[in-house]
Write a structure and sequence with these properties.
Layout: E1 18-28, E2 31-40, E3 44-48, E4 58-63, E5 66-76, E6 79-84, H1 90-97, E7 114-116, E8 119-120
Antiparallel strand pairs: 1-2, 1-4, 2-3, 3-6, 4-5, 5-6, 7-8
Length: 121
């Protein structure tokens, strides 16, 4: 038996994808799923989560106050691909949503006052 060597499919997308790790919420038909945007291009994105609707379902993706309408175009194990309803600049999207400044927060001062024997407020 002859086995053909494995060949990778050529990339057919016109626009490149940018890797991301942006938490989001996916909404459809009154249901929701917490997910992560794993990559994004000008017209599409790959989402990672646990339970997505069937192919062809229109969804809303919400990430930090941004809402993007999309349609599910493929499903995989804990992943799906979406076609975005409008163009998104992937580099700008990732800059705004993937990188968050981490600033140490100091705890608020607390004043404890004894109001009676072994009782504090």
């Amino acid at each position: 038996m002859n086995v053909a060597p494995c060949q990778l499919k050529p990339e057919l997308r016109k626009e490149g994808r940018q890797s991301a790790s942006v938490p989001c919420t996916v909404l459809w038909d009154g249901l929701y799923e917490y997910a992560t945007i794993r990559d994004i291009s000008i017209y599409g994105a790959q989402l990672e989560g646990f339970c997505f609707p069937r192919i062809g379902t229109r969804i809303s993706i919400i990430a930090e106050g941004l809402e993007i309408c999309a349609t599910i175009i493929w499903l995989g194990a804990n992943k799906c691909g979406v076609l975005l309803a409008c163009e998104v600049d992937p580099v700008t999207f990732i800059r705004r949503h993937s990188i968050r400044a981490i600033t140490p927060t100091e705890p608020s001062p607390v004043n404890i006052t004894q109001i009676s024997f072994r009782r504090y407020a």
